[in-house]
Every structure is written in structure tokens, then in C-alpha cells.
């Protein structure tokens, strides 16, 4: 999903108002955290099309991932509920070629908790 206008980035909040994605990002080394936040800022300023090389659709789901390369391969899974925003659902350090089913399951569970109301 490529959008050229500014896009609001917001975080999934659990039913008890925890912010697991922010907690994950805050736990990362500073260079990784900086990369993620810079990508979020670019999305907010210029839209998703400005970071296309970092995006990948997760087939068979409504989800997308932001790929952050470096010392660790970090993935941030999100959904675009409309043309002006994305909701960041889950983040993890990728250790294998394929996105682990456990990580995908967490993101899908959060997606359904948020949007199946």
C-alpha cells in the first residue's frame, strides 16, 4: 500500500493500556531504536511511499512489515486501517528467513482485538 501523503503512525495499546511495541523499541540498542523512529518520522512526514524499500506485505493477512536492517534484523508489523494512518502492532528481532508463526500470531491477535469490535 503506497501512499504519498503524510501518514499518522500510532501504536497498538493493550486492553490494560500497555504499549508493547513502544516497550520493544525502547529495549533495543540506540542505533536500532534510532533507525525505527527515523522511519516512523519519515512515514509521518512523507507517507508510506517514502519508505517503500523497507516495506513488505505479509501474504494471506491484512498485515505489513517494516524491515529494519543492521546488526539485528528487526521487524515491525503494522496495519493500515485507512489511507492516512498506520497502527503498529508488534515488533521483534527476526532470526530466520521466514516470519515466525508465533510473531505473526501475536500481531494478528492484536489486530483482531483492535478492529473486531
Tell me what you see in this structure:
With 117 residues, the chain is of the alpha+beta class. It has one domain: 2-Layer Sandwich (YaeB-like fold), CATH 3.30.2310.20. It is built from 3 helices and 5 strands. A 5-stranded mixed β-sheet has the order 1-5-4-3-2. The two termini are 24 Å apart.
Number of helices: 3
- Strand order of the biggest β-sheet: 1-5-4-3-2
CATH class bucket: Alpha Beta
Report the portion of residues in β strands. Answer: 25-35%
Strand tally is: 5
Report the biggest beta sheet as strand number plus sense, adding barrel if it closes. Answer: 5 strands, mixed
Summary of the model, kept short:
The chain has 117 residues and is of the alpha+beta class. The protein contains 3 helices and 5 strands.
Please give a handful of descriptors for the protein shown.
single chain; 117 residues; YaeB-like fold; 5-stranded mixed beta sheet; 3 helices
Describe the protein's topology:
Layout: E1 8-11, H1 20-27, H2 30-46, E2 55-57, E3 64-68, E4 73-82, E5 85-94, H3 101-115
Parallel strand pairs: 1-5
Antiparallel strand pairs: 2-3, 3-4, 4-5
Amino acid at each position: 500500500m503506497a501512499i504519498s501523503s503524510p501518514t499518522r503512525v500510532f501504536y497498538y495499546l493493550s486492553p490494560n493500556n500497555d504499549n508493547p511495541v513502544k516497550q520493544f523499541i525502547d529495549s533495543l540498542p540506540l542505533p536500532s531504536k534510532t533507525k525505527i523512529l527515523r522511519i516512523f518520522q519519515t512515514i509521518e512526514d512523507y507517507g508510506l511511499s517514502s519508505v517503500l524499500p523497507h516495506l513488505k506485505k505479509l501474504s494471506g493477512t491484512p498485515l505489513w512489515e517494516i524491515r529494519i536492517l543492521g546488526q539485528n534484523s528487526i521487524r515491525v508489523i503494522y496495519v493500515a486501517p485507512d489511507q492516512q494512518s498506520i497502527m503498529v502492532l508488534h515488533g521483534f528481532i527476526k532470526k530466520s528467513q521466514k516470519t515466525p508463526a508465533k510473531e505473526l500470531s501475536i500481531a494478528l491477535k492484536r489486530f483482531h482485538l483492535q478492529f473486531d469490535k
